[in-house]
Amino acid sequence: xxxxxxxxxxxxxxxxxxxxxxxxxxxxxxxxxxxxxxxxxxxxxxxxxxxxxxxxxxxxxxxxxxxxxxxxxxxxxxxxxxxxxxxxxxxxxxxxxxxxxxxxxxxxxxxxxxxxxxxxxxxxxxxxxxxxxxxxxxxxxxxxxxxxxxxxxxxxxxxxxxxxxxxxxxxxxxxxxxxxxxxxxxxxxxxxxxxxxxxxxxxxxxxxxxxxxxxxxxxxxxxxxxxxxxxxxxxxxxxxxxxxxxxxxxxxxxxxxxxxxxxxxxxxxxxxxxxxxxxxxxxxxxxxxxxxxxxxxxxxxxxxxxxxxxxxxxxxxxxxxxxxxxxxxxxxxxxxxxxxxxxxxxxxxxxxxxxxxxxxxxxxxxxxxxxxxxxxxxxxxxxxxxxxxxxxxxxxxxxxxxxxxxxxxxxxxxxxxxxxxxxxxxxxxxxxxxxxxxxxxxxxxxxxxxxxxxxxxxxxxxxxxxxxxxxxxxxxxxxxxxxxxxxxxxxxxxxxxxxxxxxxx
Length: 505
Prior knowledge:
mainly alpha, globular, disordered C terminus, transferase, transmembrane
């Protein structure tokens, strides 16, 4: 046991070193007025929450111009910003001085901001990863530590949080604590953790339906006239109390609640957000949706498509509420939301990436493949922030370590990839080893991602097609995601996992 914890400590240390190394590079919006990027957004939220009463945090006033990085995340994000603001005020009041601190940049402040991201990871995200790998991952201690290292070195989250500057590790960490709670049979505590994640970032709605269906399915299975009823009551109370505490400062005024909700769900921005590897941006290349579909119709269209895409997986989970089904439903729901929902940002791919990390032990090659593609899909954003070298180094390191430590290329037989359902569906194909086909597709995919990444840096696009490479990156990533969404659905609806997952039964 001591040896295992020593290896865990080394893995955590490596994860911290990589994160800090990425943070030393440039950050989003550095020296670029008038908005200065996401780094300034986080700093500005600290300025607003420290200097203004809570009732004005989400309102447009003379002291709070919502057009300049107005708060657009739920209250827990604002409370986190307030805590950071108190620390900033103690170190240097100029960092959060009202109005005068706009666009503030200094080496000391950069160090402070990066440290707050790392501290959040050390307090929330990394402990959840460690506990998941040790308690809900089957295998030898060496295998658990290998999965832990690959989990911690996933480049997408590191590059966005430490290069682009975000606190995604907080919401994803809280969601992972919720998954851990459900996996260990602590359903009420898991529900509290997920409510906190949802109240930190509204994008956690990507994971909400699987949580709801798993817990409801479990209550039904236990009997709604017996133990299931009492479990349902405990979960309901936990959810209501958690939401009430998070929204307490706003509950006295319904108008304020409506204003916060409007800020959290800004439908007026439209369906499209840059060159994202989702259905709408990819389809817009061929069919100009912006021109032929009205803004209101776009909302209804995306909502209908999202519901149709998430329902099969969620219904399956409701009928069979096992932890294996839960993990797959989390992948399928979040990926369907990413592909079809409204106002998707590039970094939203981190939401499907989290549950895919949970499958590193069960489906190593497919999981590694997805995580590489998810990082590649953000290449235009990463290059915009000057993160070419960190992107290349972290992606290659993750590819090498994950393939080697998880024996991903050796564990790709039809049985281990769970391709039995594919064999039945594609009965007309020659009886070749589908695992070998998947392996070669993986090689070709890595070559395409490497080639497009290099071309995006070294080649100038034609004058008539200035966005050629971002479009190619998003289209290639979209095709990958559609194929993987089909694959994960087939796995969920086919045979169960070979491993028993005894802890959740």
